[in-house]
Amino acid sequence: MASGKPNKTLKQKPPRKGFGSKSLSRNPKTPIFKNPNRIPLGKNNRAKTNKEKVKSGAEPVRKSRPLLPLNATASQQLHFFLDRFQSANGIQLSSLELEGFKDTCMVELSEGLNQDAGNLSKHLKATFGNSWNEVLCESQVLEGKISVGSPAVLIISSSALRSLELLRGVRSLTKECRPAKLFAKHIKLEDQISLLNSRVNIACGTPSRIKKLMDMDALGLSRLALVFLDMHTDVKGYSLLTLPQVSDEFWDLYRSHFHQQLLQGDLRFCLYGPSGVELKNVNLLMGPVLSYKRSSY
Question: 194-226 as b/e, with b when 16 or more CB fall inside 10 Å?
């Protein structure tokens, strides 16, 4: 029997959102759960790739390479030196050319002594052995044996101030025979030429002035047996082989006056001092180092 009251239409509740229901899709801006203990992170700035940095004008990020260790062996010094030589000059030496360089052209120093300016004289004595006094200290010019202006040891550094610091380290060896200061700061070229008219056992200076004196035949090579390359880094992290312009001047000097002597075994090099310069994987030297146009010296 029908009732006099109108039927109320019951509102149906929306279906419950559950697993598998399409209604589970949500607005991505609305988080499902907020953890009150969550520490907010900063914006995730993805590191720019080298290509992106080059486009934006910034310097590309270079992969770090291992450093040349202190008290490096002759083999480690040689491989580092050849790596720098190829990189700086834009060449790639062939396997045959690399075989021309022997470990014996590099000098290994005593592991018990720090390679700083204060110990330089001790390292020199150890390198020359029993003949150190005759080679490094005596002042007499011997006709036909010891020419004027031809040092036995040449120390090459990146600056005049560093050269003076290194020369203080060999003061005990230069009491009878004055060392030659071969840099441009506060010293005239004429005064250096005058000094080189006498016997010189130890000379120290910068690449540019050394090359200039060699080109003028004022600085001789007939007696040169050892070249110390100062690997000390300055406050900005630059060394003789990495400081702009100075490194270019050094390689110019090396190509002009040292390269052939080093190959022939008439000259020995030593990388001296605490170093911040980098050493590539030794095995890379036998493969492609840089894809530059090859040249020879």
Answer: ebbeebbbbbbbbbbbbbbbbeeebbbbebbeb
